[in-house]
Amino acid sequence: MTLSTNGVLENVETLAHRLASERRFGARELSADHFAAVAATGFHQLLVPESMGGLWASTARSTRAVAHAISLIAAGASSLALILSMEPVAMFVTGWLADFHADEADPTCLCQRQEFVGLLASGAGAWGVLLSERTVRFATALSRARTATGRSRGRSPREAVGTMSPSC
Fold first, then answer.
1. How many C-beta atoms lie closer than 10 Å to residue 4's C-beta?
2. In terms of Cα–Cα distance, which of 83, 141, 133, 138 is closest to 114?
3. What pLDDT, on a 0 to 100 scale, did the predictor assign at position 5?
4. Which of 24, 25, 61, 152 is most buried per CB count within 10 Å?
């Protein structure tokens, strides 16, 4: 099945109505089932670049759809929407969604981006805390690397960031 942005937004809207209904009947806690339901809508594909089989085209063309999907979910489950909103922000701050140019990326950064975005694309990746914690660690290391790239401090970005992922 091929997903489209409009199809994902329709799926998300359907889920939001279901979540709002559950909330009206007393559901107050999030569970793994909520995250599985979000994954089933195709929401994660909104953050996977087209070059990797997803729906993210560019900042100008894709940001609004992500924001709209999060706002739809917020109408049904605000806590879930808050958690989901963390990933696009973390991915954008690291540059992973900011009209990324692989030919300009540090090889370690590129490898880590492939790894994490690949998790989202597969639907098997941990959404929320795991990716956020790893992304925050990566962003911290990247910030240190950028500071060090005055080249007078000795460490290259690859050396500064290189310990982030065991597979890269």
1. 11
2. 138
3. 96
4. 61
Res 15: pLDDT: 96
Secondary structure class of 17 (helix, strand, coil): helix
Burial per residue of 63-92, b for 16 or more beta-carbon CB atoms within 10 angstroms, e otherwise: bebbebbbebbbebbeebbebbbbbbebbe
Which amino acid, 156? S
Please give the C-alpha separations between residue 114 and each of 34, 49, 52, 64, 122, in angstroms, as whole numbers. 26, 10, 9, 23, 12
Side-chain-side CA neighbours of 46 within 13 Å: the count stands at 30
- State both tokens at 145: 């690397």
pLDDT at 97: 72
5-161: which CATH topology?
Butyryl-Coa Dehydrogenase, subunit A; domain 1 (1.10.540)
Q: Which residues of the chain have pLDDT under 50?
A: 126, 129-133, 135, 151-166
Residues 6+ apart with CB under 8 A from 41: 8, 11, 12, 14, 15
Specify the pTM: 0.67
Q: What is the model's pLDDT at position 99?
A: 67
